[in-house]
Amino acid sequence: MTAAEAAAGTARPPRIVKTPGALAPVPHLLDHAATCAAFRWDDARALLDGLPAGGLNIAHEAVDRHVAHNRGGKTAIRWLGKSGARREFSYADLAAGTSRFANALGALGVQPGERVFVLMGRLPELYLAVLGALKARCVVSPLFSAFGPEPIATRCEMGDARVLVTTPELYQRKVKGLRERLPGLKHVILVGDAVDEAGTVRWADVVDPASLDFTIGATDPETMSLLHFTSGTTGRPKGAIHVHEAVVMHAMTARYALDLHDDDVFWCTADPGWVTGTSYGIVAPLVSGVTNVVVEAEFDAPTWYSVLQDERVTVWYTAPTAIRMMMRLGADSLRGYDLSALRFMASVGEPLNPEAVWWGLDAFGKTFHDNWWQTETGGIMVSNYAAMDIKPGSMGKPLPGITAAIARRTSEGRVELIDAPDTEGELVLKTPWPSMMRGYLHEEERYRKCFADGWYFTGDLAKRDADGYYWFVGRADDVIKSAGHLIGPFEVESALMEHPAVAEAGVIGIPDPTVGEVVKAYVALKPGFEPSEALNRELLGHARKRLGAAVAPKAIEFRSNLPKTRSGKIMRRLLKARELGLPEGDLSTLESDEKR
Ligand code: ATP
Ligand code: MG
Predict the structure, then answer these.
(1) In the chain, at which end, N or C, are there fewer CB atoms within 10 A of the end residue's CB?
(2) What's the pTM?
(3) Which of 464, 499, 533 lies at the terminal end of a domain, its last residue?
């Protein structure tokens, strides 16, 4: 029995019905099938202006054109500092600040195409540097500020960092000792109250005095724009190469998947060190001309609720790990907050357990809309929409212009599409689309292997139901083979999550001489529950009842926390390596408190 079948046996209905006519403002995508049928990429390109000098440049679309269209006075970024400081940047302010940064790069002799790495918390200068470097037609690679020296060095080396923008504190602690290893790193720009530091320049000296006027040079849409490293959930992070053309996808998905309207106040909780924090924490909202809330502080549920309330956030894009954290505290923790402005909530990064969708509905009175994409796809590919019924546990349907399918590769390397509904296979996407990665940095062979017969192979297993909804099964690497069954960890984790004691679950397969692999679950409990033999037995029984003996875990181990990437994804490969005493592999993206 699958989790979906099990859910059908409970009191919960299989779908959450939407009433599009009752929604205000009217969603951009009202009828999925009709919008997809009528969609042309030229319509998406028409959402953008194009560069006066020729071509397409992300920064022009995100910033300068709003000023040209007399929208310069509108708040582009509302920045909430850690210490309670608050700054508003209008689109005109952003245009000026990014031009200054672009001019500063020019004055330092930095050429188009050279790589600008950004390593800092969510400070306003991060946004100015990213967009300013794009104006200068440099390639941007934002790094997560919590990275230690080694991951910083590897990425800067791999990506040929020419410029690094960071803070004095991060420089002292993490970068200074690496300079000899990074001879190509010519310029380090220090933001904030920097003391004189050999081999660095101060933002205040090079950016602040620079001219506010900058004309973006002609930018071929195929010009490299961003270099993004993947989350490292399944192994060593790969560097995905993106181009300016990706902005077409960002504009289109902001409209259809996130349903952004002119007056929206948008908040994406992801850090720009990850692709979501750049594509949807910087580019998509600004391209759409909305107000983008940026929160410097690390997150906890009370901070989230205050931000949602105080900033009157209307559209919120977050992740399952955050939702599970809120679930841990319970719906009571939301009481007293006025979240009446909130219209649309979306989630990405990991499978969103059906239980989390139901919890969202109970707690917020609205549902989280799961959507699926990867660093490699550059933008949202499969999504739930404001006006489309939700089937909890499903990641929705492909975006207009995107053709998805379920497929397998034959032994001859051909692609065999699987048309039968509810049949597992690899999720594939028809190439090309504007934000498709153009390469893995220095890994040509690996890149090539992702494609066959005009399809991109995502490495994720999924199935499509008779209504065209896609269901995530698991990463190809994580799928468990037990006594002839293929078991996706997500299904088992979701069933465990239904138990009131369970806050989080991570499921792996352990080699077994008789059945191939047996299912083992690691479980973190909600406050108020203590690990015990009795609870262990109860959870095993609950899982067996929900999933059947063949799929249910044979063993459960309690953990206070599960190992996760810094972007909040459960690292099953690490659970497995530790269980089996195998090498732990690349840990550069592991949350530090999980390191041993
Ligand atoms: P690496 O490729 O280095 O192992 P990663 O795949 O986690 O790391 P990302 O590109 O950040 O790196 O994440 C994309 C992956 O996250 C997807 O391939 C998928 O496995 C998972 N994912 C993202 N969104 C969803 C979703 N809505 N449902 C299920 N899985 C999702
Ligand atoms: Mg991946």
Answers:
(1) C
(2) 0.95
(3) 464
